[in-house]
Structures are given as structure tokens and as C-alpha cells.
Write a structure and sequence with these properties.
Blueprint: E1 13-14, E2 17-18, E3 20-21, H1 22-28, H2 34-42, E4 46-48, E5 51-52, E6 59-60, E7 66-68, E8 71-72, E9 81-86, H3 103-106, E10 115-116, E11 124-131, H4 134-141, E12 149-156, H5 161-166, E13 171-173, E14 176-178, E15 181-189, E16 192-199, H6 206-213, E17 217-226, E18 229-230, E19 239-241, H7 244-251
Parallel strand pairs: 11-17
Antiparallel strand pairs: 1-2, 3-6, 4-5, 4-7, 7-8, 9-11, 9-19, 10-11, 12-16, 12-17, 13-14, 15-16, 17-18
Length: 274
């Protein structure tokens, strides 16, 4: 059982066992994010001990009988994190109304239900973190972690290195403010250039919009790292577990919130779907 986060309600002793809010419990089970769980509860899809819930503030314990859509909630798996090399042409979504291929359709059948930590758009490739713990996904997405996301970007157009340097002060485009971006020109050949970019916030299509603002067309975008986790030599389409001891070390003081005080139970490397 994953240890609950200590809060005024979630850390209370109930029936001899520590409790946690139901929305967090669903997120820890990997079913959804905590926000999605709150919507499910409002829609009447969740029961606890035979009663339909109407509030996500309800606290449950290990003894609680939880059902979602009439099915018993499985026991929470230990929190795990995977590195995935997302290929270009896959959407980071569970369902696409247009029927386009998604990341989750491409994952190995041996992998449990997972959530992505943030998103990469259709034409972006590279490192995508996946986890079976919705609360961990939410934690890693927060800008307050201070983790940089590093990218390699190929652009077409004339690169103004002074304009790149000014991105370190942030930029406002069409009413949207973007935080500091560390941008460097790596190489240039004809009308094509390779840039290295690092940013900490990562708003929707941020790099593409900022490059367009500089009159540069992005022709390839690769995420190399997310905080301390690196793409490295992971082949396109492959997935590899992050050892629990490494995840624990990187989470530091937050590790116990996710049951990572112990290092047993490292995720096994799943087979690639063929």
C-alpha cells in the first residue's frame, strides 16, 4: 500500500490505519489523475462501502470497500516510473476522436495502466515519463520542482543569436507569458540550424510558438531530458523502468509520500510491443 500524504484529513488514524482522500486513492491506483477522480466522484461513479460518494473529501483506509463503475478497485501497486522514447506521429492521449495512433496504444501489453508526466505533441519525439501513480505524475509536472526540460531543436530560417539570448528573460506572445528559456545555437548549415533549449515550465506547444515568434520554423523537436531523467541511448519506441532507488533519491524529502522509503520492487523492463 502506498503511504498517504500527510494532511489534516489524509493522515488521520481511522480504524487503526492511516487514511487518505478517495480522489488521491484513485490516482494512486493509476486509474486517473486526482482531478479526473474528482470529476468521477461528482458524476456518481464511485462507491465506498456501498454508498455513492458526492464529495472527493471523503477519507478511506485500507479496510474501505471501493468501487468504480461497479467494479472493485484493485489494490494499489507500488509507485513506479518509466522512461519512454516517444516516436514522432503519436498523440499523448488515451483516446483520439479522429482515430489517430496514440502513445498508450503503442505500449507493451505487459505494462500496467500508466499516465504520462505532461505531454509531447504529435510531432515531438524523445523522452516521455510514464507512471502508474497519478499523484506522482501531478507532482512531477509542477513547475515548483524546478526541473529543466532539455530539447534539441532543428529550425529553418535565419537565427538571430541576440534574440535567442533575450529568451532568458522570458517572452510574451499574443497575451501569453512564457518563462525563461536557455537557448543556444549549436550548428548552422544553409537555412537549417540545430539549437539546444532548456526550460522549466513547458506550456502547450511553447517551443514551437516561441520559435515562430522569432520567424523560425521547427522541423524537428526532440526532448532529451526531464529533470534528472535522460533519454540517453533508449531506442525509439522502447521503454525502460527507472530504478526505485534512483526515483527515491531524486524525490528527496517527498519520497515517503509515494511509498518510496524502501527500494524493493523495482519495475521490470517490459517487452516492446511488436
Amino acid at each position: 500500500m502506498v503511504k498517504p500524504e500527510a494532511t489534516s484529513n489524509a493522515g488521520a488514524e481511522i480504524g487503526g490505519k492511516a487514511g487518505e482522500r478517495i480522489a488521491k486513492r484513485l490516482a494512486r491506483a493509476g486509474l486517473c489523475s486526482r482531478r479526473e477522480a474528482e470529476r468521477w466522484i461528482t458524476a456518481g461513479r464511485v462507491k465506498v462501502d456501498g454508498k455513492v460518494l458526492d464529495t472527493p473529501a471523503h477519507v478511506v483506509t485500507g479496510k474501505s470497500n471501493i468501487e468504480v463503475d461497479g467494479k472493485p478497485l484493485a489494490a494499489a501497486e507500488p509507485t513506479k516510473l518509466w522512461r519512454y522514447h516517444k516516436p514522432k506521429g503519436l498523440l499523448t492521449t488515451n483516446n483520439d476522436p479522429e482515430g489517430r495512433a496514440t502513445v498508450f496504444q503503442s505500449l507493451p501489453d505487459s505494462l500496467p495502466r500508466v499516465l504520462s508526466v505532461g505531454r509531447l505533441d504529435l510531432n515531438t519525439e524523445g523522452l516521455l515519463l510514464l507512471t502508474n501513480d497519478g499523484e506522482l505524475a501531478r507532482h512531477l509536472e509542477l513547475p515548483s520542482t524546478g526541473w529543466s526540460r532539455r530539447y534539441r531543436v532543428r529550425v529553418h530560417g535565419t537565427v538571430d543569436q541576440k534574440a535567442l539570448a533575450r529568451l532568458a528573460d522570458g517572452v510574451r506572445i499574443e497575451g501569453i507569458s512564457y518563462g525563461a528559456i536557455d537557448a543556444k545555437l549549436d550548428s548552422q548549415k544553409g537555412g537549417n540550424s540545430w539549437l539546444s533549449l532548456a526550460l522549466k515550465e513547458g506550456k502547450n506547444r511553447e517551443i514551437r510558438r516561441v520559435m515562430e515568434h522569432l520567424n523560425l520554423q521547427v522541423t524537428r523537436l526532440i526532448r532529451l531530458s526531464y529533470g534528472p531523467f535522460q533519454l540517453g541511448d533508449l531506442a525509439r519506441g522502447d521503454i525502460a523502468p527507472v530504478p526505485r532507488r534512483i526515483l527515491r533519491d531524486q524525490l528527496g524529502g517527498h519520497a515517503a509520500r509515494f511509498g518510496l522509503a524502501e527500494v524493493e520492487g523495482d519495475a521490470r523492463r517490459p517487452r516492446k510491443k511488436r
